[in-house]
């Protein structure tokens, strides 16, 4: 729960010093500012302090642009999306009225990097602590792309972040390491020509809440709504992530509704308990994704081959390291996701037009399934039509197109000749992809790449592995299979 203490740690003189420093840093050069705004308490406090400080400058001294950027991963909790969208609109409107140089921007991952294209299209497993593939693609890269574009435009930028030393020891250490001597700025840990300014670095959590409750929002929000949101979600802030040293969302946060890095989404559960029952279907889908991480169930949902077509085994066992989700399971997940979207749109409060997956993502998932995963049945249009009752403006392929009937015939022939069907499908897909090209110099390389992949079935692989294992590993594997090692030792060997 949010703990708000009515203290006087933020007093007049101290605030005046903070505002003065902000103004001095702003006027010291022509580098534009980029303020990271996530909608949480820390970023709100930092932005509000910058706003108040710059408001005291004469209009002619407010010319340097201040970009307020918010990261939308496209899988944010709908309530948070609505709050941030409303706030950004108010910021833009208030800035225009008050002749302030604030410009709002939302940054999102490109279609090819989106959560659903990776999970459903490429079959990436739901993120976990060991394989947290989502943060870089959904948060770091979109924010960094925006910053790099401003660097290209202006030469250098200053990033204003609501980070605090007391919030993350790692972050404090990194900022101290990159601190510029004689300056309040630090060099960014990974972005060239980007500098970091943390106006609330020395604040405690109580300082932040006290400031927000004692100083009204200058763009028209009610900061007590932010307090209520934290209370309802029992959450901590999910910051704008710009590098790998930025604190992650942690175990209690509001952020992506599909997050499976935590065992339970307590913030979503708390929102539902506080009256947002329409979020239940999202929680059910999220729990389905979390279930696929259970060790005993991974083989039900995932390929035994990796995405590169190779197979590797956990040392000392006959258990393959799980690969991507199977295409059949990805189809099941897409159906469930679209059904969840229909249910959410039916049960959401009036005016809420929550969209869980965008049309552009569906197009890209279809392309990947057709080009890389042998989906000759062209399943995506069929699933969309079945669940949503409509057709998208699907691209009509002008190259050779195989059908589900072709797939059935290929499977029948391959079975009769004891040839892996998937191998023949991939070879035909390579040929189809290069059909009609004047220059086909790369086709032989792609064919060689296909043949280098592992196409034997799992039984054949296990038989071969057992025949080539050193005797001590065979004994160890048999012991694991017979339960002679404790689960702790199995985990140690799996790691």
What are its keywords?
Rossmann fold, disordered N terminus, disordered C terminus, mainly alpha, 495 residues, 20 helices
Q: Explain this structure to me?
A:
This protein has 495 residues and is mainly alpha-helical. The chain has a domain of 222 residues: 3-Layer(aba) Sandwich (Rossmann fold). Helix content is 49%, strand content 5%. The chain is built from 20 helices and six strands. It has a six-stranded mixed sheet with strand order 3-2-1-4-6-5, with helices on both faces. Strand 1, helix 2 and strand 2 form a beta-alpha-beta unit. Helix 2 packs across helix 7, helix 4 packs parallel to helix 13 and helix 12 packs parallel to helix 14. It is elongated and about 85 Å long. The N terminus and C terminus are likely disordered.
Measured by DSSP, the beta-strand proportion falls in 5-15%
Helical coverage, percent range? 40-55%
According to CATH, the fold-level topology of the domain at 12-233 is Rossmann fold
Low-confidence stretches: 1-9, 236-243, 245-252, 471-495
* CATH first level of the domain at 12-233: Alpha Beta
The CATH superfamily name of the domain at 12-233 is HUPs
Q: What is the compact description of this entry?
A:
With 495 residues, the chain is mainly alpha-helical.
Present the secondary structure layout.
Blueprint (H helix, E strand, L loop, with lengths): L11 H16 L5 E4 L4 H15 L10 E6 L6 H20 L4 E6 L7 H7 L12 H21 L2 E4 L8 H9 L8 E2 L6 E4 L7 H10 L8 H11 L32 H8 L6 H12 L6 H4 L25 H21 L11 H14 L6 H10 L15 H13 L4 H13 L9 H10 L5 H11 L2 H11 L5 H8 L1
């Amino acid at each position: 729960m949010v703990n708000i203490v009515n203290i006087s740690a933020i007093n007049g003189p101290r605030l005046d010093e903070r505002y003065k420093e902000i103004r001095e840093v702003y006027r010291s050069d022509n580098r534009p500012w980029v303020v990271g705004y996530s909608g949480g308490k820390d970023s709100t406090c930092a932005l509000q302090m910058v706003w108040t400080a710059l408001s005291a400058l004469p209009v002619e001294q407010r010319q340097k642009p201040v970009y307020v950027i918010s990261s939308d991963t496209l899988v944010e909790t709908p309530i948070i999306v609505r709050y941030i969208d409303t706030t950004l609109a108010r910021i833009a409107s208030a800035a225009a009225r008050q002749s302030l140089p604030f410009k709002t921007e939302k940054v999102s991952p490109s279609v090819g990097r989106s959560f659903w294209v990776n999970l459903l299209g490429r079959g990436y497993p739901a993120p976990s602590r060991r394989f947290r593939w989502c943060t870089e693609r959904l948060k770091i890269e979109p924010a960094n792309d925006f910053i790099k574009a401003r660097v290209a435009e202006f030469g250098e930028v200053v990033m204003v972040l609501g980070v605090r030393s007391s919030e993350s020891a790692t972050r404090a250490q990194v900022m101290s390491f990159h601190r510029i001597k004689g300056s309040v700025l630090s060099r960014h840990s990974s972005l060239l020509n980007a500098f970091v300014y943390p106006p609330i670095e020395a604040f405690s959590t109580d300082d932040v809440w006290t400031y927000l409750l004692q100083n009204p929002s200058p763009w028209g929000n009610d900061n007590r709504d932010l307090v209520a949101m934290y209370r309802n979600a029992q959450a901590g802030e999910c910051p704008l992530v710009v590098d790998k040293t930025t604190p992650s969302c942690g175990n209690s946060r509001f952020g992506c509704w599909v997050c499976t890095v935590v065992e339970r989404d307590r913030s979503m559960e708390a929102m539902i308990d506080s009256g947002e029952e329409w979020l239940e279907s999202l929680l059910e889908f999220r729990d389905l994704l979390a279930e696929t991480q259970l060790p005993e169930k991974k083989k039900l949902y995932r390929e035994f081959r990796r995405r590169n077509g190779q197979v590797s085994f956990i040392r000392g066992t006959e258990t393959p390291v799980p690969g991507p989700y199977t295409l059949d399971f990805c189809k099941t997940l897409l159906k469930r996701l679209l059904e969840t979207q229909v249910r959410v749109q039916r049960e959401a409060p009036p005016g809420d037009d929550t969209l869980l997956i965008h049309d552009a993502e569906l197009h890209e998932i279809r392309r990947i399934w057709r080009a890389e995963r042998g989906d000759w049945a062209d399943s995506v249009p069929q699933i969309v039509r079945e669940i949503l009752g409509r057709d998208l403006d699907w691209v009509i392929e002008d190259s050779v197109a195989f059908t589900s009937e072709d797939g059935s015939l290929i499977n029948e022939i391959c079975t009769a000749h004891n040839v892996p069907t998937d191998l023949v499908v991939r070879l035909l897909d390579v040929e189809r992809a290069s059909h009609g090209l004047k220059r086909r110099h790369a086709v032989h390389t792609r064919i060689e790449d296909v043949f280098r992949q592992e196409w034997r079935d799992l039984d054949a692989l296990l038989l071969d592995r057992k025949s080539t294992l050193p005797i001590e590993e065979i004994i160890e594997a048999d012991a694991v299979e017979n339960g002679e090692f404790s689960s702790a030792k199995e985990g140690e060997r799996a790691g």
